[in-house]
Amino acid sequence: MKKLFLVILIITTPFLAAQNNTTYWQQHVDYTMDVDVDAKNYQYKGTQQLVYTNNSPDVLNKVFYHLYYNAFQPGSEMDLRLQSIIDPDKRMVTNIGSRDNPIYESRIAKLKPNEIGYLKVLSLQQNGIDVSFETEGTVLEVKLNKAIQPGEKVTFNMSFEGQVPVMIRRAGRNSEDNVALSMAQWYPKMAEYDFEGWHADAYIAREFHGVWGNFDVTLHIDKNYVVGGTGYLQNPQEIGHGYEDKTKPLTIKKGKKLSWHFIAPNVHDFTWAADPNFKHDVLKTKSGTTLHFLYKNNKKYLEAWKEVQPLTEKALDYFNENIGQYPWKQYSVIQGGDGGMEYAMCTLIAGGETLRSIVGTVFHELAHAWFQHALATNESKHSWMDEGFTSYISTLASSKILKNKGDEPSSSSYRSYFYLVNAEIEEPLTTHADRFHTNFAFSTGSYTKGSMFLTQLNYIIGKENVKKILKKYFQEFKFKHPTPNDFKRVAEKESGIQLDWYLNEWIETAHTIDYAVADVEGSTITLARVGQMPMPIDVTVTYTDETIEKFNIPLKMMRGEKPTKATKLKDWAWANPLYTFSTSKEIKKVEIDDSGLMADIERSNNIFIVN
Ligand SMILES: [Zn+2]
Q1: What is the pLDDT of residues 351-398, one digit of tens each?
Q2: Taking ligand 1, which is a single-atom ion, which protein residues have CB atoms under 5 Å away?
Q3: Distance 386 CA to ligand 1 centre (A)
C-alpha cells in the first residue's frame, strides 16, 4: 500500500509541478540607503539595507543586482557593442574621420581610471551572515546561504562605493550643460524576478526593468549643492534650497555637508541630480501635484525653463484626464543627463536655450510617469509599450496644448516607419531592446511603430474605444508590470472586438499592410489584400452624382466591428485575397482608408478613378 502510494506520488508530482502559474504576483523591495558623496572627486560610499520579499511561488537560491555604472569602463559589454554597431549613438562616440567619411571611436574605450564609472560591492550579508558574491561586469551574482522560500522576507545588508563616470550616456558628471551630477542607475539595484524568471540583463545601452518597492535614501553632500530627484524630502527645514516652508525657520546644522533625507513610496527606481548652481522653482498645481523645476542659473536657460512651467501643468492635466490621475504627490523636471530620460517621479532633461527645444521632451518624459513609472512594462522586452504609448499620448498633448489642433491622432508620424520598411531593416518589436541590429530599427520601431499601434487602433476599433481602453488599462495595471497581452485583453474586453491577430501581426512580425482597389465595373468593386497583414477596411465611394457613401468591411477575425456611421458590409476573411461588393449607384471614384490612419505601405493603389 505504502509502495503504491509512492508510485502514485512519483507519477503525479511532475504534472502538479508543471501547472501554469496564472495568478499575478510581483516581488517587493524596501531599500534604506545612506550615502556619503565626495562631489569634488565624483565618488561616493554607501550602505544599503534591502528587505526583499519573495512573492513568487518559487524557491530562490540566487539573487542578482545590477551594477550599471560598471558599463562605463573600457572593455565593458556596452563598450564592445558601441564598437560593433553600425549606427552608434553619436553622444557615445567621437568621429575621428571626416563628416563624409566618419570613423567612430568609442568614448568609453578612452576613459582613464579616474574618469570611468564603477560600483563596487564591498560586503554583503543575508540576514546578518556574509554571503558570497561575484561581480560580472554590470551584474552582481549572489549565491545565497539559505534559499528564499515563497512568501519569505530576507534582509540584505551591503556596503558599496561608486565613481560617477564622465557623461557618456544618461548619467554621469558634468553634463553638456555643465550639471555636476546626473545620478541615474547609480546604486546596486536588485534585478527583477517575475513570471518569466530573472531579468539580470547586462547594461548595454537601453532599457530598464525594476522591482516595485519603497525607498528611504539619505544623501550627505556639500552644503552648496542643490539636489532634485525621486522622493519626498523629509527634512526641508534642515535643507532650505527652495524646499523649505517659508513661514517656518530654517534649522540648518553646522558642518560642510547637508543630509538630504528622501522617501519614495511605490516606485521601481530612485534617481537624483545635484549642482551647486541650480535654480529651484516650485509650482503647486491645481490638481494637487507639486512640480519642481531645477535648472542651471545661467542666463541662456532662464527664459525657456520659466516658460515651460505652466505648460508642464497643462500636460499634467491632459494626462490626468486622458489616462488617469498622476499617482504621486510630486514630480521634478531637472536639468541633467543628455537628451531626456524618464525616472521615478522625475526626469533629467538636457538643454533649454529655447522653449521649443525642451517643451516636447518635457511632455514626453512626463507622459512616461504613466507609461513606465506607473505602468511598469519590462522595457527591455516591450520597449514599444513605454516608448510607443508615451509618444502617442505626448503627441496628442502637444497638438492640443501647443497647436490647439484638437485631439485627432495623426498619420503624419508614419513617414519614418515607411522609411524603415523601405530600407528593409525592420525587426519585429518582440526583439530584445539591446539586440536590435541597428539603433535606427530599435528607435523607429519602439517610438514610431509603437505609437502607431495605438493610432491605428483608432482606425480598427474606433477612437472612443481607444480613449476608454487607455483609462481602463491604467486603472487595472498601475503599480504592476503589464505585458502586451494584458493591454490587448483590456482592449478586447472594452471594445468587444478580438485583437489577437493585431498584436501578433503588428508587434510580433514585420509583416506590412497593402490593400488595393483591384477593379471597378459598373457598380461592382473588387478590393485586394496585397500585403501579408490583414486589416478591416474603410472604403469611401464617390458616385457619378457627386454623392459620397462610406463603407466598413470588418475583418472576420475581429468577431465584431467598430462603431461607425458607414454602411456595414459582410466580413472579409483574411485567407481570401479578394473581396467584392456592389453599390446602389454608378461609381466615379473609390478610395481605401481616406483617413490615412491605416499604415498602408503603398497608397498609390488605394484610389481608383473610373474613366
Ligand atoms: Zn521615451
Answers
A1: 999 999 999 999 999 999 999 999 999 999 999 999 999 999 999 999
A2: 387
A3: 7
